[in-house]
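REQUEST ID: PR-0412
SUBMITTED BY: lab tech R.K.
PRIORITY: routine
TASK: structure prediction, single protein chain
INPUT:
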Amino acid sequence: MLVIMAVCLCSCEKELTPIYADEINDGTYNIEVKSSSSMFKIIDCQLTVAGEKMTAVMTLSGTGYEKLFLGTREEADIAPDSEFSYFIETAEGRYCYEIPVEALDKEFSCAGFSIRKQKWYDRTLVFMSDTLPDGALKFDPVPVIIIVTASLLVISAAVIIIVKRKRGK
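STATUS: complete
OUTPUT:
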């Protein structure tokens, strides 16, 4: 029974809890970004944390998007040009976009404007905090999770022992 509980506690898919700038040490970090579309592949991302603000410079695998908008394609259609993030081409010919980041481990909508198709495409992105280097987070939740899991196992074992002793009397 204890083994089953331990497996359940450790193997369940982690539910994401947003992590904000004030929970991360100031600095610039490599971070992975999950995308809802294989046509919008982020091959590099530099997250910069300064005070209570975060920005990211994302490099895409292709050169098909002229600009990005944080929101849906419907919102992008009516947004002013000042709200778009246009690409900056690197020396290697890659397209990079700088965007503000509200939180890590939180899905957000991002629309990309296709140069070839001349239309917006909806994407969902997530900046993954578990890909930050050690020491980036001000508070590392992993030791707490281990302690809580171990405590639950000890309590469960104690309950089982008490129940078995009471049945034996």
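NOTES: The first helix runs from residue 2 to 11.
REVIEWED BY: pending
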